[in-house]
Amino acid sequence: MSTDIRKISLDGLWHNNPGLVQLLGLCPLLAVSNTAINALGLGLATTLVLIGSNATVSAIRHIVRPELRIPVFVLVIASFVTIIEYLTKAFFYDLFTILGIFLPLITTNCAIIARAEAFASKNNVFHSLIDGLMMGLGFAAVLLLLGALREIIGQGTLFADAHLMFGENARWLTITFIEDYRGFLLAILPPGAFLGLGFIIAGKNYIDKQQKRKAAQQIYAIEGSTQTST
Amino acid sequence: MSLNTPTSPHIHDDTSVTKVMLRVLLALVPAIIAYSWYFGWGLLINIAIAATTALACEYTMLMLRQRPVAPFMTDGSIVVTAILLAFCIPPLAPWWIAFLGTGFAVVVGKHLYGGLGYNPFNPAMVGYVMLLISFPKEMTTWLPPNLVQDLNFGFLTSLNAVFTGNLPAGFSLDGITAATPLDLIKTQLNQDITITETKNSYALFGDFGGIGWEWIGNWVFLGGVWLIYKKVINWHIPVAVLGSLFVISLVFFLMDADYYGSPMFHLFSGAAILGAFFIATDPVSAATTPRGRIIYGIGIGLLTYIIRVWGGYPDGIGFAVLLMNLAAPTIDYYTQPRVYGHKRK
């Protein structure tokens, strides 16, 4: 049981990350990641939808006929998106105006329907819930990293407009790295999103490769030591 | 006795990448001299910064990619990229403009795609377009050529301006810089001021292009023709680029001379001639079949005109070259010459 949860979590956060490995939901990932706060807002909204939709799809998986499953999944997802959208509109109105069309568009985020189809429709509610949480957090982490990178390079700040999300008390969160920064427009513009995501994927692959090499070396070292001892 | 029969091609030429690049560099010398004559030391300083950055980035990337360093460093291609990019940078732009642009051109434009011979886009133009969209203000303020002669900035003054941004007492950057002729006409037209009126009220325009620009264009042209004579480049691309630019600007000029610049103005302004001979002909990123080269060149000429006249940026050569680079593989695919002995499809 616990190993299952460990595996699901690692898959969502690293090995099968929706943003870096499955490359799903690239449209919002690239469009909304121009600042860290926008990215965090959309990342959290997507995570909440993913938890809700995964749990619901898993709970009704025996009732839904296979022929009708896709429309039903979309309906479930759309309902959760609507809930999140109204919640954002009610409590974070400024953030809502910035995220704009990308909030309702979470419905069409293929990462969510992919998890419903590939995981939630085949697993029990608890596991689906964990999967939704971890996949959502993995997606949000990539969004946040990309948003932070683009914001630092593009504007020289981090968590600018933090009050949009956390209220007026959170203005201290904004970090200005370089005073009077001239701005590097490329990072804020769409090409910066593609370049940034490319570098992050390259970084992940590099880390994976290093770990594989290390593991191979360890096996070699163990074999070598046993050979010398015998 | 061994009878080795080599496979075709049986005729050998002693060209190499190094030799081709040296010829390109040689062909650029008249243009560099003419440019420095009109705009002062700025270009040479930019070339020095760009070439140093390019060599440093090339070295770092080759080490990271574990490729042989010596042959790639000495083949000269990276210096050509640096010089072409330096041509596109305003003479007294701050040093980090040339530094960032060349770094981006070499690292992202060239090496991330696999290095020399694998880059789908012209690296110099990748660097230029990155600079243009990121730093529009720094990239569009040029010195007016007639003023440079009066200012008579020495080497040290120019160096100081590039690295510290300080100008001699009594001068300010806003005071001495101005828009290029292409840029000026565009902003004036937006305010409903016709080209004739603009030409009469600004001392930027010469006999057929901008002052200075037109003569630099001639020297670039001379270098380009020499490259064709030496068979470093083919005639197809330059002729197609300049021809199509000439024809489309002539059509619109005849329709309404007040709103559309004359064909000569378009040919001798901005980077049209430099682009046609030196940038569009990049052997790696251009189309390679004879018919394909003509289509590719016409595409660049037309796109340049469209971007210049109706687009948001004053000059369109950089964008036009990159867009047609993207189309080059498709053009090549559909224009493969008939193989001898095979029927035409």
Would you write up a description of this structure?
The complex is a heterodimer of chains A (230) and B (345). Chain A has helices spanning 2-15, 26-31, 36-59, 69-91, 93-99, 110-120, 125-155, 163-166, 185-188, 190-229; strands spanning 157-158, 175-176. With 230 residues, chain A is mostly helical. Chain A has one domain (2-229). The two termini of chain A are 39 Å apart. Chain B is an all-alpha fold and 345 residues long. Chain B folds into two domains: 16-177, no CATH class; 181-333, no CATH class. Chain B is built from 18 helices and no strands. In chain B, helix 1 (17-39) packs parallel to helix 4 (77-87) and helix 14 packs parallel to helix 17 (290-310). Classes of the chains: A mainly alpha (230), B mainly alpha (345). Chain A binds chain B through residues 182, 184-186, 189, 191, 195, and chain B through 108, 130, 133-136.
Kindly list the characteristics that best describe this protein.
heterodimer; A: 230 residues; mainly alpha; two-stranded antiparallel sheet; 10 helices; flat; B: mainly alpha; 2 domains
Topology:
The complex is a heterodimer of chains A (230) and B (345).
Chain A: H1 2-15, H2 26-31, H3 36-59, H4 69-91, H5 93-99, H6 110-120, H7 125-155, E1 157-158, H8 163-166, E2 175-176, H9 185-188, H10 190-229
Antiparallel strand pairs in A: 1-2
Chain B: H1 17-39, H2 42-64, H3 69-74, H4 77-87, H5 95-110, H6 123-134, H7 136-140, H8 145-151, H9 155-164, H10 173-176, H11 181-190, H12 195-201, H13 213-229, H14 236-255, H15 263-267, H16 272-279, H17 290-310, H18 317-334
Helix pairs in contact in B: 1-4, 1-13, 2-4, 2-5, 4-5, 4-6, 5-6, 6-18, 13-16, 14-16, 14-17, 17-18
**Net shape of chain B:** globular
**Amino-to-carboxy terminus distance of chain A:** 39 Å
How would you spell out the order of helices and strands of chain B? HHHHHHHHHHHHHHHHHH
Spell the H/E element sequence of chain A. Answer: HHHHHHHEHEHH
Rg from Cα of chain A:
20 Å
Distance between the termini of chain B: 47 Å
Which of globular, elongated, flat, extended, rod-shaped describes the shape of chain A?
flat
Instruction: Report the count of strand segments of chain B.
Output: 0
Number of strands of chain A: 2
- Give the oligomeric state of the chains in this entry, treating copies of one chain as homo and distinct chains as hetero: heterodimer
Mean pLDDT of chain B: 83
Largest interface: A-B, 7 and 6 residues
Q: Report strand % of chain A.
A: under 5%
Low-confidence stretches of chain B: none
